[in-house]
Structure to design on (294 residues):
């Protein structure tokens, strides 16, 4: 009897341990918006994001509802639940009512983007993400201006040292202010991200595409001469013109103006090179937009 009782007791204890949920270590990192790089640990069972000062994470933007969405940590998984927000909660660009999150998912609330991190070493993953933010634009997921300037300086030196061609393309979206004014900033953000994604698929591995600022983008083209850089510029101009940009069932017409510059013996500083391409970009706008100059 004593032996049987001990066995039953042991089985009961093991069962209770197995049923107890293991805490899910996870956090959110702001990769686009105010407080860039800030981390929010998901230690508690729930966390509410919204415009209200009573929320665990406050985002003071008109496009964010007072109580926008909730993150729920069950101990085994983390899910995000929309709380009937006006503009919706997005995970990896898809609107969701409720969604179980996976490591690396991007959560968009208003104009703010969070990256969801989970796993065995959250601190290490967080520091890697912070380092990534020094080179990548959080919205478009292409390189940022800081990284672009570093690479351009390096490529100019390399071009002179080995006597190789180097071209630069600068372009921006025509009448982008009208897009924001007419369709809203959320639609404007969507256009920027979609544009970057479409063009990124058409560049070579050695090319560097970056968001230079606002609606202006740049592409560094190593070992490409003036003629071929203009041909490439015209190719992406036509590509954008034919692409359907759609936000919440509304089609938004989008075109770009492009300026092209090619390095020569007198091109020594990135600023000089950018100035030439920018002047050609503004000439394209003076000619009526949706064209290539340089």
């Amino acid at each position: 009897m004593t032996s049987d009782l001990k066995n039953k007791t042991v089985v009961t204890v093991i069962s209770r341990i197995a049923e107890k949920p293991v805490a899910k270590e996870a956090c959110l990192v702001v990769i686009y918006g105010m407080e860039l790089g800030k981390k929010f640990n998901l230690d508690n069972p729930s966390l509410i994001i919204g415009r209200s000062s009573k929320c665990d994470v406050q985002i003071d933007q008109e496009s964010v509802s007072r109580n926008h969405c909730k993150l729920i940590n069950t101990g085994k998984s983390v899910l995000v639940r929309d709380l009937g927000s006006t503009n919706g909660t997005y995970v990896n660009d898809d609107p969701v009512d409720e969604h179980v999150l996976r490591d690396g998912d991007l959560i968009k609330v208003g104009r703010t983007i969070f990256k969801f991190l989970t796993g065995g070493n959250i601190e290490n993953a967080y520091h890697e993400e912070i380092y990534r933010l020094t080179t990548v634009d959080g919205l478009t997921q292409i390189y940022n201006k800081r990284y672009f300037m570093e690479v351009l300086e390096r490529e100019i030196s390399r071009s002179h040292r080995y006597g190789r061609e180097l071209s630069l393309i600068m372009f921006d979206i025509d009448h982008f202010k009208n897009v924001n004014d007419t369709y809203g900033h959320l639609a404007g953000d969507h256009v920027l991200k979609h544009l970057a994604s479409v063009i990124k698929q058409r560049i070579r591995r050695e090319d560097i595409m970056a968001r230079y600022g606002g609606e202006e983008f740049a592409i560094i083209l190593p070992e490409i001469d003036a003629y071929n850089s203009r041909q490439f510029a015209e190719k992406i101009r036509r590509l954008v013109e034919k692409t359907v940009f759609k936000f919440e069932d509304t089609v938004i017409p989008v075109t770009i103006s492009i300026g092209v510059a090619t390095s020569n013996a007198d091109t020594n500083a990135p600023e000089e090179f950018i100035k030439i391409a920018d002047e050609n970009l503004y000439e394209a706008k003076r000619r009526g937009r949706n064209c290539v100059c340089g």
Remarks:
- The longest strand covers residues 166-173.
- The chain has seven helices and 18 strands.
- The first helix runs from residue 2 to 19.
- Helices lie at 2-19, 122-133, 145-162, 176-183, 185-200, 226-242, 270-286.
